[in-house]
Structure formats: C-alpha cells, structure tokens
Amino acid sequence: MIQSPSLQTPPVLKQLTCPSCGGSLPQYSPGAQTLICPRCNTYVKVEAEGLGIAGKGSKLPPPPAPVKLGQRFTLEGTGYFVLGRVLYEGWDDEDRWQWTEWLLGSNDGRLIWLSYDKEDGFVLFRKMRIREAFNPSSDRTIPTSDGKRAHVRERYPAKIIGAEGELTFRASAGDKLNMIEGAGFGKQYSIQQTLAELEVYEGNTLSSAMVAEALNDPTWAAQIKRSTNTKAVYQLVGVVAFVFAVIGGVLGVAASRTGDLALTQQLTLSTSAPTGIIPINFEVGDRPAVVRLRLNSGIPINTFVEVEASVISPDDTETFIFEKEFWYETGIDEGERWTESDTFGEEVFVPHQTGEHEIEIALGESSVTGNILVQVEVLRNHILPSYFLIYGVVVGIIGCCFLAMGWQRQK
Question: Rounded to an integer, what distance in angstroms lies between the CA atom of residue 197 and that of residue 164?
C-alpha cells in the first residue's frame, strides 16, 4: 500500500542554534552526528559537550529526483521521513561520476538510506553487521546477513561534495572515503570506509516508478512513463537493427562464395619460364571477378615463392591484381616440432571492358629452384561481400546506440 507524501515534519527532538550564524538548527533524530545549517551551510558536529563547527560548504544543486527534506511517504508498507541528503563523487583512472543518498527515518525508528545513481537507479539500503572477518582492501567477497557471500564488483575512492539536513556520521564537504560495491542473490551491497569507521549496507533495488508512486508526484510519474515508452521504442529499434545486421552478415558470407567458374587451369612456372598467360572472355563489363591461386606442387622446407597475378584488357592495358607469397616453414619450439604453410590466395578485380582478356601469372622473388605448379581459377559475376558487411556493421552500430539509449532510460 502506497500513501500520499506529506511535507509535515515530525516533532523536533532538539531545537539548536548554529554556532556559526546563530540560525535555527533543528535536530530530529537522536542518532544525528552532523547537522548542516540551512542558512549558512555550516557543518555542525553534535557532541556530548555541545556543538562544534566541522567545516563549511555551499548550497547543493537540485537533486536528481524530487525527494525533498522533510517529506513523508510510505514505501513497501513502511512510513519514512526524509532527514538529510548527501552528494558524493567517485572516480577512477578513466572517469568521474556522482550519486545521491537520502537519509530516511522510518516509523519504527530505523535509519536507512535511499541511494540513486544513473547506473543502478534507486537502491534502499539498510545497515548490516558483518559477523565474519572482512578485509575491505583485498577481499573479493562480502559476508552477507544470511550467511552467504556477495561478489565485490569494484573499489574506488570518493568524496563528499556536499550535504543538507542531518547525517548519522561525522562529515564535512570534501571528506574522502573508500567505496566497495558488491552484488549477489538479488541484493546490492555498499561499504563506506573512512579513517574513523567502516559501515556496511545491504539494499534492494527500487524502480523509479515505484519511488514516484510513493511520493505521489504526478509530473515525475508522467515523465517516467514517457521515458519507459521511449525506452521500449529504442530497444525495439535496437533489436530490429541487430536482426538486419545479422542478415547483412549472412548475406556477406553468402556473397563471398558467389561467382561463375569461368576457367580452371594449371600452370608450370620456373626461373626459365617465369610467366604464364591464360585467355578469358568477359561478356559483361564492370562486374567483379575473382582470381584464385593454389600451389599444387610441394616446395622445400623453409622456402618461399612469390606469384603475381595481372589482367591485360583488350586495349593492352595491364592491371596488377595481387601478389601472393607461398611458403613452407618448420622448426622446433620448446622441444616440439611445428610446421606451417600457406598455399592459397585469392583477390577480387573488376574488368571494366568486355571481350577477350588475358590473365598473366608471373613468378616473382623465390628461394625455390625448379618448377612449381600453380592452379589458377577465375570466377565471373562475383557479388562483393563488402557492401553487405559494411551494411551489417553500420546497422549493428545503430542497434547498439539505440539499445544503449534504451538501457540508460530504464533507471
């Protein structure tokens, strides 16, 4: 059951005076250790002997969600009152990010935290006791309240940018801490470590719609609904784009195997007869063709031979197609013999003229003496796979962008 929120504040536990500006400084929770003056933004530490100044800050920017100090609402059957807000900043070698935490007092006297960041959305954290040995600097798992162990996702340094209201720990703007985040068994875990203390929290993820409904904020709820609908559209477009990307990839693979076999012939090349000519007729111009070369004769160990392929058009224009190096190598690595070879190559070319052409196969640089046998194949009317592959990559990137936008909007 979710009830409408109210800005009616609970009874003030103590009515204090800011030691910096003399302004009114109410305390609502007996567990408060820091009060932030709403008038001068002084961080006031609450001690047994009185109040002291812990530091000065500046006014916080608006929160990422319309959760206000003093607000009352009921969530998951429990009534809450917003006592304070903290804005944090974390960083690593590549990025910096911020998140917000609201201190909530519950009707049953517990103090819990409502956290929000762009990656995880809303999480309702409750303080948890660790009953086993735990090293926050190195342990890869976190002992949980039910005796299980959650996986540590990341560790990073952080600092307090600012706060308002009251807090359950000693704090001031600029204070630094170490964060350890974990997850497991459907729960989130957050550990905050300072020089003075180590606090462990266990939480459940909440949807933005659930929080908006609890706050009874129709404007925010409508915004979330629009965002959810947009997310669904983005994800649908992303999935459809991925389907077309896969189709493009399949068509690209199929296109790479296309072509009508126009000729197949074996040539014998040697240093005394280094060139072979094969006539071929192309009835249609500007259609891709494929030349395939395969070494049919063996060559001695640790030798190579280069073979060049060119096409001579009816107007005697010679166009280089490609050069292929055939090789055969063997050796010993860590006491084991290995053998590698390369005896096949192919390349696409486009004859721009029609009529009789000549395919010229020439022996290039070689460490082989004697004859070599080269099998030559020419395929006409080949379909270039690059168009389909480029199409698939572009559409796949578009799909990734839409899915990423849909994911960002789901929090």
Answer: 21
Spatial contact of 27 and 16, defined as CB atoms under 8 Å apart:
yes
Closest CA to 356 of 390, 316, 313: 313
Which residues sit opposite 54 in a β-bridge? none
Q: What is the pLDDT of residue 8?
A: 53
pLDDT level of residue 1 (50, 70, 90 thresholds): very low
* 411 pLDDT tier (thresholds 50, 70, 90): very low
Asked if 328 and 309 count as a contact pair (C-beta separation under 8 A), the reply is no
Contact assessment for residue 364 and residue 374, using Cβ atoms and an 8 Å cutoff: no
Overall size of the chain counted in residues = 411
What average pLDDT does the structure give for the chain?
A: 91
Q: Are 296 and 374 in contact (CB under 8 A)?
A: yes
Token pair for residue 122? 């809303």
- In this structure, are residues 170 and 196 in contact, taking their beta carbons and an 8 Å threshold? yes
* Tokens at 298, concatenated: 């063996």
Q: Write the CA distances from 338 to 295, 301, 330, 333, integer angstroms.
A: 21, 12, 5, 7
Block residue for tokens 């559209």: 233
DSSP annotation of 8 reads P
Question: Using CA atoms, how far apart are residues 404 and 88, in angstroms rounded to an integer?
Answer: 25
Identify the CA nearest to 376 among candidates 259, 274, 266: 266
Q: What is the pTM of this model?
A: 0.65
Topology (CATH level 3) of domain 260-382: Jelly Rolls (2.60.120)
Q: How far out from the chain centre does Cα 222 lie?
A: 29
d(CA 46, CA 167): 10
* Alpha-carbon span 324 to 311, nearest angstrom: 15
| Beta pairing partners, 143 | 149
Domain boundaries, the chain: 14-216, 260-382
Q: What is the dihedral of CA 142, 145, 149, 153, to 10 degrees?
A: -40
To 5 degrees, how large is the angle CA 253–CA 258–CA 264?
130
Backbone φ, ψ for residue 269 (5° rounding): -115, 150
